[in-house]
User: Fold this.
Amino acid sequence: MDISQSVIMTIMTAATPLLLAALGELIVERSGVLNLGLEGMMATAAACGFAMAIVSGSTTVGVLCAVLSAMALAGLFGFVTLSLGANQVASGLALTIFGLGLSGLIGAGFVGTSRPPLEPLFIEGLTDLPGFGKIIFGQDFFVYTSWILILAILIFLHLTRAGLTLRCIGENHHSAHAIGLPVLKTRFRAVLFGGACAGLAGAYLSLVYTPFWSPGMTAGRGWIALSLVVFAAWRAERVLLGALLFGGATVLQLHAQAASLGLPSQLLSAVPYLATLIALVFMSLGRKSGTVTPGSLGQPFVPER
Amino acid sequence: MKHIFKLLSVAGLALGLATGAQAQEKLKVGFVYVGPVGDFGYSYQHNQGRLAVDKALGDKVQTTFLENVPEPDSDRAIEQLVRTGHKLIFTTSFGYMEPTLKVAAKYPNVHFEHATGFKRAANVATYSARFHEGRYVQGVIAGKLTKSNIVGYVASFPIPEVVSGINAFMLGAQSVNPAIKVKIVWANTWFDPGKEADAAKALLAQGADIITQHTDSPAPLQQAEAAGKLAFGQASDMIRFAPKTTLTSIVDNWNDYYVARVKAQLDGKWTSIDTWGGFSANMVNMAPFTNMPEDVKKLAIDTEQAIKSGKLDPFKCPVYAQDGKEVPCNGKGALSDGQVLGMNFYVKGIDDSLPK
Amino acid sequence: MRLELSPRQNVWPLFRLLSPIFAMAMAGLLASLVIMILGQSPQAAFDVYVLGPLDDSWAIQEIAIKMVPLVLIATGLSFCFRANLWNIGAEGQFTFGAIIGSILPLLTQGMGFGPWVMVIALLMGMLGGALFSLIPAYLRAHLNVSEILSSLMLVYVAQLLLDWLVRGPWRDPNGFNFPQTVNFDAGSLLPVLMDDGRLHAGVILAGIVVLVSMIVLSLTLFGFRVKVIGSAPKAAGFAGFSSKETIFAVFIISGSLSGLAGIIEVLGHIGQLKPSISTNAGFTAITVAFLGRLTPIGILFGAFIVALTTIGGENAQIMLKLPLDLTTCFQGLLLLCVLVSDSLTSYQIRFVSDKPSPTTPIEDA
Assistant:
């Protein structure tokens, strides 16, 4: 494997958990709900997924449990914010705190356990093509899932009736309600979908990226994923761009260090954050003023009388 | 309002007395950890030391720990241990130095032990381990086994302990392979498995065929295993994470030290001392040497023995700095402890520049 | 069956006051269940978690110390959030304030100047935090760049800057090359108020900030403007309130208070700069601000809950050997309970049977 191919593979690995979590959150926010609990859902999913994969000996079972556990947390969030109308920002933060604690309790029994990582795809004659073979035909389940998700979300949002409903509700829940669209039901489903994606991201961390569990292994990736949704201006294809940009800057700064550039390592470590910020500034320069945020984002829905 | 608090405090006192009466003879020993005990690295090993105290002296001692204590919160955490009757308290991270001293000044009858610091007081002892001895042995192994003559080093933060580790590794490697090169990546974290894995991948992609690390998770080892290369573990024996790749691990062993110090406290013989032990004090161990040919294994064991018996010092003079100038030799035939404890230069042959 | 919300017309004031107590009871019930499953007595746990930290002057002072940065930052954030500006980078402004505020104490270290160093340091800390918050404010006001992303990214930049400073130019020359500055002169530090604990003058500053912001929010035109811009941006436009000016104003308030919190932490009890000077106060304060419904008094209450459970959690680790993660879980649950009971006081909840037709909600309109 030549160096550029290996760099691209590493960037994709670093970008995938961000991408998965951000895509889920994108749907949630497009429906008008702000769930800041990504970090907590990812942490719980990482712990649950790893624990169940060890107990059952099956990666599939692990991934399923990770997804279900994150969906359970998302369901709790949905109940509190949608059914009971509690403040979304604070509930999301509380969910993060709860999820981080819960992950520690679940994972405690699995400290120091290891299992082999998920095998990537291998197709004779395709994966070993020089240059791009491994990049296109040698990824693992999660990477392909994230690719499919982007396409599916694009189609869903722009070509289906359900997607249109979701966008309407996110833009203005009162008028959506007035024309008879099911506001809370749609939002609840979106929140669950967001949970499932965060679950995949968490499972990716503990089953593929670094196949073991340790406390705090999400290391702030949930927050980065949240800000990528903003970076992407709530558009799926731009989430991919943002995740690759952020992952790429992270990986390239490590390569720059290994190549002994002689710059302060703190400066290089700051590159991913600065690069994302500068990219966003340039993208905003090219855009006419006006907001792209879903109109009802973060507001509880209470039918007007 | 004041009245209520008074009432409550009486109730609290009564409660304290009730539980205190049963445990009166038992010495309470407290530990403050900077990370979670489940990190399988630094804090995990300190906790193993605590469990060893429980095992050896459990009938006379009761141990308690506080995990994940952020540095700015440590004053309170330490004082809370004092106020709940702990008489000997181990604070296990460098960042706890000033807080430990502040609390110690307030409670002269309580004894404190601070790991990896350099300030002591009548009731504050310090202790640390000569991890660089283990790094030297790793260097010798890597020097023998590398085919590409490039070793990758995943480093955490440029503090003296890490810098002296890199130097000792390089000196060990150069002793058997003068042509060896080391590539260093500062992850700027002690613990972020994903980032550590990415750092290891970057080093592997740039030609390193052996990975060593001074960060706490087994992620770099796993990456080396996935790439079919070799690697060293950190802080605890990490072979279970990469059975085909792990050459050995440097194991922090606080067990004997903690048991000895708690015993001293029980016997009334505790004094404020500075302990900096390595192989010979059994504070640093090498995990079994694996995945290497017999001759390299033998060389590694011999090197470990030579350091243990005092025949070999990893920083034996002359030591040359990066620019080729000889470093003044302040110790007996080797660099002094002070020079190693405050090390902020690279030795010759490392072509990275030290972050200033 | 499904739940439907409707706003309560007149909320009995006592109801609002009792809501947090109801929440705590709810959380207590949940926690007791878990603790009983773990084989501990819920009463002992209550003593340790809640009464323990309240049982003497030292512990109460510690709660107050823990509350200071949370209250300061959350109060500043409440201005931003009221104006619908999502400054989530308070942690960065906190760090940058601590850096700028430390310049003078560092320069004058060992010269024995009096408390005026401290006063200027506090002001410079506020200035530092405000300057750092001007970046997201400018980007938002003039380039329409989302403040959520810019303020969050700048958190990491500020932390790495601090890391570089204390490992490089500001490192204590006699500190064996460890990453920390010299200890500041005792005269440059905030005075300690009690002799049996660590309570420092920062608590007075926090109190003043709460009072002033109560007045500003309820009595001044500016306070009114912030509220209007947040709740009805179009109306604010008609009223001639400039949204750009308001963006800068609330970011400067929030940034300077976060910066003040940063330098107070340094001068209040850390006494030097080192790589980690924060316990995540900048992020925790977001929770606190929303727990307190963005009102100064509510923020005091929110900060109290967080501080109490943090210290109670340490108690539980020591006295009951309950793992820290369990405390973290409880903390999350308690926050959720507070939010739920808060919303129960504002909304009436009715069970309605599901009707098949999607158009039924119209009947409510």
User: Anything to note?
Assistant: The longest strand of chain C covers residues 2-7. Chain C has two domains: 1-40+325-365, 66-321. Chain C touches chain A through 58 residues (CB under 8 Å).
